[in-house]
Amino acid sequence: MLKTTKITDPELYSIVANELERQKYNIEMIASESSAPTEILELMGSVFLNKTEEGLPGKRYQAGSQHADEVENLCIERGKKAFGCEYINVQSYSGATANYTVFNAILEPGDKILAMRLDHGGHLTHGSPANFVSKIYNYKHYGVDLETEIINYDDVEEKAIEFQPKLIIAGASAYPRLIDYKRMREIADKVGAYLMVDMAHISGLVGAGVIPSPVPYADFCTSSCSKTICGPRGGFVMCKEKYAKALNRATFPGTLGSIQLNGIAAKANMFKRVMEPEFIATMERVLDNAKFLAKELENRGFRVVSGGTDNHTVLVDLRPKKITGKQFDQALESIGITVNKNTIPNDPESPFVTSGIRIGLTAVSERGFAHNEISEVADIMKMVAENIDNEDILQECKKQGRSLISKFPLYPEEYFED
Ligand SMILES: Cc1ncc(COP(=O)(O)O)c(C=O)c1O
Fold it and tell me: Is the dihedral of CA 301, 303, 307, 310 positive or negative?
């Protein structure tokens, strides 16, 4: 691993080596994480990193673009096939910039956007005061029904009629249920708004066909590449053909600089994998494991927000255990399980403390976890939650977790041998 860096920069090499060790022996359950396959690691470090390109294939500003065009065209062709979309731009650096390019393509400063509240599961780029988009556009937010903890579509419709947004955003960071895209489309049509679906979290599940696709309903679909889709850091935007020109102009020169061809090569491989039976089986396992974990946690006295999950995420209310998200997240990290603290709908705690945690099943399912392992994780979580200050029990849990994860290698052992 890192043959030259090991010799020329041992200080940095040892940090990377330590991170590899951490990933190998950690039970990774952060919902926005996945483990990229070795092809993706290789392509991210490929010589395409050296090539500067601006513009689209066939219309570059730089010379020497033959292979750059080939790789981006292949990526586009595979992306279109994987999602059945009319048009795709694969240049975005991340899910966040993918959203910015759409805003830039269709909106003017001051235009109105209706999106999901951050504290009910929405994303920072959907109009949080902490994100610069809130200074440019005029936002209103919808949320979940506090009884069912499911999106209140009547409320979305009422707000849309009253607010008359130019854009409605569906999609979230911490929403464990399916979104009714047909209903969102109807609401958008009723008020003459564009519909953008931010499928950053669920694009792997959508691409594998294990949950419904928003592509037929949305004007634009945006995604990150590093969550359920298990690709590189990066993003992409799909749209109806009629918006292609506006999207391309808004991407470059409108929002981004020169493209990251190494990332585009890796995305091309990601889209190929999405269509393969092995990936589809992994995504089926992610869904099954998430549903199973939700039940297992409920059986152990946790409250699962909305009573379950339809995707890779389980949102857990910790109040029955009388601990906060911050306490549980830190205690789990100390024993080798990573999750993240998360607000739950109507959370009495601040976003820095929270009453909940968000758990994602992608990374452990990639490594091969099935029901037996998920039950063991639920046992460990219960033990930690109920003994949060008991160092001896936490040490036992750490040993148990390490022994469990050690049976499921992150990468083939020989891959990193020098
Ligand atoms: C709904 C949603 N959109 C966009 C993003 C941003 O994606 P990235 O981290 O790739 O910029 C996230 C990341 O968590 C997300 O959850």
Answer: negative
Ligand 1 probe mutation, 125, 175, 202, 315, most atoms within 8 A of CB: 125
Flag whether pLDDT at 418 surpasses 80: no
Ligand 1 centroid from CA 391, angstroms: 35
Q: Is 192 exposed, middle or buried (0-12, 13-18, 19+ CB in 10 A)?
A: exposed
pLDDT-based confidence at residue 416 (cuts at 50, 70, 90): confident
pLDDT tens-place string over residues 264-321: 999 999 999 999 999 999 999 999 999 999 999 999 999 999 999 999 999 999 999 9
Q: What is the largest CA-CA distance in the chain?
A: 64
The alpha carbon of 224 and the centre of ligand 1 are apart by a number of angstroms equal to 6
**Residue 35 tokens, joined:** 């483990």
Q: What is the mean pLDDT of residues 118-125?
A: 95
Q: 123 C-alpha vs ligand 1 centroid, how far in Å?
A: 7
CA-wise closest residue to 157 among 189, 201, 118: 189
104 neighbors 255 (Cβ within 8 angstroms): yes
Interatomic CA distance for residues 186 and 67, integer angstroms = 43
What is the number of helices (H) and of strands (E) in the chain?
16, 15
3-state secondary structure of 46: coil
Could you identify the residue written with the tokens 């190494």?
Answer: 262
Going along the chain from its start, the domains and CATH numbers come out as 41-274 (3.40.640.10), 277-414 (3.90.1150.10)
CA distance 358 to 374: 15
d(CA 418, CA 414): 9
Please check whether residue 197 is in contact with residue 167, taking contact to mean a CB–CB distance below 8 angstroms.
no
Ligand 1 shell residues, CB under 6 Å: 32, 94-96, 123, 125, 171-173, 198, 200-201, 224, 226, 235
Report the residue among 123, 131, 221 best suited for mutation to probe ligand 1: largest number of ligand atoms under 8 A from its CB: 123
Ligand 1 nearest-atom number relative to CA 122: 1
pLDDT digits (tens, 9 = 90+) for 30-81: 999 999 999 999 999 999 999 999 999 999 999 999 999 999 999 999 999 9
In this structure, the dihedral spanned by the alpha carbons of residues 297, 23, 35 and 125, taken in order and rounded to 10 degrees, is 70
